[in-house]
């Protein structure tokens, strides 16, 4: 890996009572890379994500983002530092419109002076116009602009997942973390997701860390892959290296 890592995870461990769900996992993600975490069900992938994004405070280890420690910060501060994520199940404000979901995300992200907002100053109105422009830009980018005023809960499932990605992107992150983004998508939607992730990397310079079980998606878009098994790191490398690794085939790919 040529670049200094954007994200560096060192000997991360997470214990739930008697269960060591994550056992000394380390990984590096360089700027503009697409990196995937794979492994069998219950391997600890989501727990790694939860520790990196501040949902859990890790039992041990370090999470460094742009060389700054994140592992003791609350989730909202980690998001403000530029790491944002989606969840395995869609978490939109379903009764709000598509565009409202993107405006709320930006309001939640920004440190705002509430009083200034109430006073409706010119600066405040200019800022609101910027948020709307950014929302429109990302709706266009993920192919949802024509649904801007529709209730988010009325979108098709694949569209909801794209809206979740747009909701992350309006906050202008440096690292986008996607937890099983292809789960529940049909082959056409998975193909669109594949193209979107590649565009985010190539055209927007976004770094992507994802957990995914769809091996053709993972093998097609990843620069590097980390494999975890029963909480422990099993292997890492390029898609080709991982695909050929006998231990990975035995623990995971062999079951496919
Ligand atoms: N909050 C929690 N409390 C107790 N145990 C937990 C908690 N979260 C996860 N676990 C356990 O930790 C282990 C790892 O779970 P995790 O969800 O991280 O796996 P995963 O690799 O993401 O699985 P999947 O591919 O099925 O999503 C499992 O045994 C799970 O039951």
Automatic annotation (TrEMBL):
Pfam families: ABC_tran (PF00005), BCA_ABC_TP_C (PF12399). Keywords: Amino-acid transport, ATP-binding, Nucleotide-binding, Transport. It comes from the Bacteria. The keyword Nucleotide-binding applies. The keyword Nucleotide-binding applies. InterPro entries: AAA+_ATPase (IPR003593), ABC_AA/LPS_Transport (IPR051120), ABC_transporter-like_ATP-bd (IPR003439), ABC_transporter-like_CS (IPR017871), BCA_ABC_TP_C (IPR032823), P-loop_NTPase (IPR027417). One of its GO terms (molecular function) is ATP binding. Residues 7-255 form the ABC transporter domain. This is High-affinity branched-chain amino acid ABC transporter ATP-binding protein LivG. Belongs to the ABC transporter superfamily. CDD domains: ABC_Mj1267_LivG_branched.
């Amino acid at each position: 890996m040529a670049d200094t890592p954007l994200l560096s995870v060192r000997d991360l461990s997470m214990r739930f009572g008697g269960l060591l769900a994550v056992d000394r996992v380390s990984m590096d993600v360089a700027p503009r890379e697409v990196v995937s975490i794979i492994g069998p069900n219950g391997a600890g992938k989501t727990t790694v994500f939860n520790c990196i994004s501040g949902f859990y405070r890790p039992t041990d280890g370090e999470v460094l983002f742009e060389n700054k420690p994140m592992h003791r910060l609350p989730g909202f501060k980690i998001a403000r530092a530029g790491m944002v994520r989606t969840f395995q199940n869609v978490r939109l404000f379903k009764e709000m419109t598509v565009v409202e979901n993107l405006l709320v995300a930006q309001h939640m992200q920004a440190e705002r002076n509430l009083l200034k907002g109430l006073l409706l100053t010119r600066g405040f109105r200019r800022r609101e116009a910027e948020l709307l422009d950014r929302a429109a830009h990302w709706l266009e980018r993920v192919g949802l602009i024509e649904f801007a005023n529709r209730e988010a809960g009325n979108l098709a499932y694949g569209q909801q997942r794209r809206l979740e990605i747009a909701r992350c992107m309006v906050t202008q992150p440096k690292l986008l973390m996607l937890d099983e983004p292809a789960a529940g998508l049909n082959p056409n939607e998975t193909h669109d997701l594949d193209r979107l992730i590649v565009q985010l990397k190539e055209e927007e310079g976004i770094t992507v860390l994802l957990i995914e079980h769809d091996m053709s998606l993972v093998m097609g878009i990843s620069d590097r892959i980390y494999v975890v098994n029963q909480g422990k790191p099993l292997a890492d490398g390029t898609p080709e290296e991982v695909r050929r690794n006998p231990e990975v085939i035995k623990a995971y790919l062999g079951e496919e």
